[in-house]
Design brief:
Layout: H1 3-16, E1 20-27, E2 32-34, E3 44-50, E4 58-63, E5 66-67, E6 80-82, E7 94-96, E8 105-116, E9 120-124, E10 130-137, H2 141-178, H3 185-190
Parallel strand pairs: 1-10
Antiparallel strand pairs: 2-7, 3-4, 3-8, 4-5, 6-7, 8-9, 8-10
């Protein structure tokens, strides 16, 4: 095998099939960032986020310096945006708004970058740069503890108020019992 052919094969193996897999966990109803980093500093022409299990339509497509909603999956319309519209430092991450249980699944980030050689031409990496496994939690333990603490605080305030009312009532009764009318024994005998 020639050295040139080995170099080409090594480049295809290294660039074409290597992709990271990452798990991201989000809370139901919250926004989540799906990270993706361009493999080189070449200008980005197209960014495509897909859900392979949902068919050929995409989650998000950015080309010609604009997001393209034409073939976007309906459930993602107005819910996905680039974190950094300028894609500075190759940041291709997207923010998924108002995460739902239906958003659980595998997301893939694909990119087309401009290759600067003697002639400018676009290169398309058909394999994803990164695969994100998104998991959605219904409610966090922190939220549950927060509700329990609030309930405990309200209960304590009600108990303090009841004790204060009881003390005022007892004090008032003692005051009334100490103010019994004084009768003169001479007045009682005359009657």
């Amino acid at each position: 095998m020639s050295a040139g052919l080995c170099g080409v094969l090594l480049a295809l193996i290294t660039c074409g099939s290597a992709s990271q897999v990452q798990t991201v966990t989000a809370d139901l109803g919250q926004d989540v960032v799906l990270p993706c980093q361009a493999p080189s500093s070449s200008p980005v022409l197209v960014v495509e986020w897909t859900r392979p299990d949902l068919g050929s339509e995409y989650v998000f497509l950015y080309r010609n310096s604009l997001s393209d909603p034409e073939n976007q999956l309906d459930s993602f319309v107005n819910r996905v945006q680039l974190v950094d519209r300028g894609m500075r430092d190759g940041n291709l991450a997207v923010r998924l708004l108002r995460v739902s249980a239906a958003d659980v699944g595998k997301y893939e980030c694909h990119v087309i970058q401009e290759r600067t050689t003697r002639r400018k031409r676009a290169t398309f990496n058909t394999h994803p740069i990164i695969t994100i496994n998104l998991d959605v939690r219904a409610q966090t333990a922190v939220d549950t503890r927060g509700h329990a603490a609030a309930l405990l605080s309200v209960t304590a305030l009600v108990m303090v108020a009841l004790v204060m009312v009881a003390l005022i009532f007892v004090k008032h009764r003692r005051h009334l019992s100490s103010e019994k009318p004084v009768y003169d024994t001479d007045d009682l005998q005359q009657q």
